[in-house]
Amino acid sequence: MAEITAKMVAELREATGLGMMECKKALVESNGDIKAAEELLRIKSGNKASKMAGRTAAEGVVVAFISDDKKVGALIEVNCETDFVGKDEGFVAFAKAAAKAVAVSSPADVEALAAAKTDSGESVEDLRKAIIAKLGENMTLRRFQRYETAGQLAAYLHGSKIGVLVELGAGDDALGKDIAMHIAAAKPVCVDKSQVPAELLETERKIFSAQAAESGKPADIVAKMVEGRINKYLAEVTLLGQPFVKNPDVTVEKLLADKGAKVNAFTMFVVGEGIEKKVVDYAAEVAAAAKL
Predict the structure, then answer these.
(1) Which domain does 30 fall in, by range?
(2) Is residue 40 one of the residues assigned to a domain?
């Protein structure tokens, strides 16, 4: 059997990013053939990723990518299990590579994104398995949004947990960033009232009607009260109806009109939003173990 040297282990570790013991074991199994050992580790890292697939990944990052001409861009949420790993440079680099792959390849869905090529020539899925093997946590490509526009795109990231991508029909960089920042702070549902989901509006109308009916006022007054509440609600949940966070004296609609600008669409992702996190009762686990 070939002698496994520290230099060989270091070389394999540099190539794979995996732990020394894993690299040494792979070299032993491949009889000192570094290339074969690397292939072996890639196979095992894929197996490792599969074993972790059922573990809840509700932490992670939101990352944005915008092309130099600001015509094509993407926003993506990539999840992991712990906030600690979510801050790892390798994990963040993987998320950025995935965001660029979305913009460049225009995949139809997350499954198609997995097969998309990155700048390194590797697929997004290959990179995902490699970073899972290195960091030892389940990681998922949860969702993404891609925009391509004749106007321009702008993005704002609030740390790594909230991300916004805005498509401007007209406007400039500064305005785009301001609008994206406003969206992150005010969290509108859509651009204008025509885009408010009908079922959402109907639910609010029923609630307002029931509340107004309790006032005992005549039906025509109740109807006016309901419409007033609906209008107020629409102003609260639509981007154009909201007071601009930097100057509450003007609405976003007025701000855009004064600038001769327009917002066609936007997307906001919040890390882990809607994911049910498993709550572990460690005291109960210890108590149960003590009874064994």
Answers:
(1) 6-52
(2) yes
